[in-house]
Write a structure and sequence with these properties.
The protein is an alpha/beta fold. It has two domains: about 160 residues, Leucine Dehydrogenase, chain A, domain 1 (Rossmann fold); about 230 residues, Rossmann fold, CATH 3.40.50. It contains 14 helices and twelve strands. The longest helix is centred in the last third of the chain and has 26 residues. It starts with 18 loop residues before the first helix and ends with a helix. Bound molecules: glutamic acid (GLU). The site of glutamic acid has 11 residues, from strand 3 and helix 12.
């Protein structure tokens, strides 16, 4: 059997800023505001553990391809580490490190008992068969069987993965421990211990955060327009739930392009179209095609970037017309854009707060698996909504107290909780 060389896609796009540097520059500002001691700063600035695995997978053509995969555990002082697994051709270690740290801050900001982690495999799942993805997922799980564990490190879906991959991961891990281990992973299919409300949880949190921010800005949701970048799980659910609350969604985009309707897009129609057309909006007639680069700077009140990192940069931030940005994606704003956005007086609900609804319901899923007791959808959504509004208020009050933007305030809240825990646990 022929063995191909390690499958590595070209380096990330040159105009993308390094997400790790973006994360660190905000962390540094917040650490200074808090007067964080040097020991804790040094502990938090580097991940606890980084694992790189090379996974041989037999492809459908009989050849073996070796994929490179990562799992980065940023910090576990608050509890077992938690975070998704990304399948994407542009995955790279610094990105996974940033995403893992963001999980630490995210779990701390919503006050759930987890540390932060993230995983990824450099691959293009859109060109792979289900069988190839399954073999790759199982091999990745086996390679990381000593890292994962219901009380150690608990993966979840992220870009390019979903309930199907989580089911394979749970099954493979369960085999290694000789019993069904539901709580080792979240975002599972409903029939095998997934939680009601998990699929829409991130988008729902974005909706709750948007409404809370609009209230602070004195804006009525039914008189507000929005554009949503990304129409995957997070973007489509956020768009739908905001549409249901009466916002006029004028623009949406996905990998196939951007679509604009000044009278508002019927999001239910857009979702039905996407589901009937291989998950893409291409050819959708409920809106006219527009240049995807114009979506972020379009004439709307609310902007929801819900796709990838570094889409708002120093190059386009000045042209943004929105009064409010709610970050459904992780790291959509490069640090270089922060001063411009602040100067323009745009309110930003940052990623670690805005998209924390997903990990919050992941936490509920884990609790249900451990309890062996299924919650109703109402229990899930009521509790998740409350956690999200409480976290929003805490970050908002912190931003007023220190006269700092919401983004830095969210870091201050998170780092403070982690630093206080270190003080009590001690032991350096
Ligand atoms: N991947 C999601 C995130 O970035 C969810 C993580 C989880 O549920 O553990 O927040």
């Amino acid at each position: 059997m022929a063995v191909q060389t390690v499958y590595k896609e070209p380096a990330p796009l040159i105009d993308r800023e390094n997400p790790l540097e973006s994360m660190m520059s905000r962390f540094n500002i917040a650490a200074e505001i808090l007067g964080l001691d040097e020991e804790t700063y040094n502990v938090l600035k580097t991940p606890d553990k980084q694992v790189i695995v090379h996974i041989p997978v037999t492809m459908d053509n009989g050849k073996v391809r070796v994929f490179e995969g990562y799992r980065v555990i940023h910090n576990t002082i608050l509890g077992p580490s938690k975070g998704g697994i990304r399948y994407d051709k542009n995955v790279y270690l610094d990105e996974v490190k940033a995403l893992a740290a963001w999980m630490t801050w995210k779990c701390a900001v919503v006050d759930i008992p987890y540390g932060g982690a993230k995983g990824g495999i450099i691959c293009d799942p859109t060109t792979m068969s289900a069988g190839e993805i399954e073999r790759m997922t199982r091999a990745y799980t086996l390679a990381l069987k000593d890292v994962f564990g219901p009380d150690r490190d608990i993966p979840a879906p992220d870009m390019g993965t979903g309930p199907r991959e989580m089911a394979w991961l749970m099954d493979e891990f369960s085999k290694t421990v000789g019993m069904t281990s539901s709580a080792v992973v979240t975002g599972k299919p409903l029939v095998m211990g997934g939680s009601l409300g998990r699929t829409e949880a991130t988008g729902r949190g974005v909706m709750v955060a948007t409404l809370a921010a609009l209230e602070k800005l004195g804006l009525n949701p039914t008189e507000v327009s929005a554009a949503v970048q990304g129409f995957g799980n997070v973007g489509s659910w956020a768009a739908k739930l905001l549409f249901d609350k009466g916002l006029k969604i004028k623009g949406v985009s996905d990998i196939s392009g951007a679509y604009w309707n000044a009278d508002g897009i019927d999001i239910n129609e857009a979702i039905a179209y996407k589901n009937a057309h291989g998950g893409r909006l291409e050819g959708f007639t409920g809106a006219a095609p527009m240049d995807p680069n114009d979506l972020l700077t379009s004439a709307v009140d609310v902007l929801v970037p819900a796709a990838v990192e570094d889409v708002i940069t120093e190059h386009n931030a000045r042209q943004i017309q929105a009064k409010l940005i709610v970050e459904g994606a992780n790291g959509p704003t490069a640090a270089s854009a922060d001063p411009i956005i602040n100067e323009k007086g745009i309110m930003v609900v940052p990623d670690i707060l805005a998209n924390s609804g997903g990990v919050t319901v992941s936490y509920f899923e884990w609790v249900q698996n451990k309890q062996g007791f299924k919650w109703t959808e109402q229990m899930v959504t009521e509790r998740a909504d409350r956690i999200m509004s409480d976290a929003f208020e805490k970050v908002y009050q912190t931003s007023l107290k220190y006269k700092i933007p919401m983004r830095i305030a969210a870091y201050v809240v998170s780092i403070d909780k982690v630093a206080q825990t270190y003080k009590y646990r001690g032991g350096f």
